[in-house]
Amino acid sequence: MSKTKTKYVCSECGYESLRWIGKCPNCESWNSFIEEIFETKKSGGSKKKSESVPLKLTDDVPQTEDRIQTGIKEFDRVLGEGLMPGSVILLAGDPGVGKSTLVMHAAGKIKTKILYVTGEESFRQINIRAKRLKVNNENILVYPETNLEFITDQIKNENPAVVIIDSIQTIYNPDFDNAPGTVTQIRECTSALMQLAKVNGCAVIIVGHVTKEGFIAGPKVLEHIVDTVLQFEGERNHSYRILRAQKNRFGSTNEIGIFEMHGDGLSEVANPSEIFLGDRDKIVSGSVVTASMEGTRPVLLEVQALVTPSNYGNPQRVATGFDYRRLSILLAVLEKRAHLRVSTANVFLNMAGGIRIEEPAIDLAVCAAIASNLKEEKAKESLVAVGEIGLGGEVRGVSNIEKRISEAEKLGFSTIIIPKANMKSVKKKTKIKIVPVEDIQSAIEEILI
Ligand SMILES: Nc1ncnc2c1ncn2[C@@H]1O[C@H](COP(=O)(O)OP(=O)(O)O)[C@@H](O)[C@H]1O
Ligand SMILES: [Mg+2]
Question: For 404-421, what is each residue's pLDDT tens digit?
Answer without folding.
Answer: 999 899 888 999 999 999
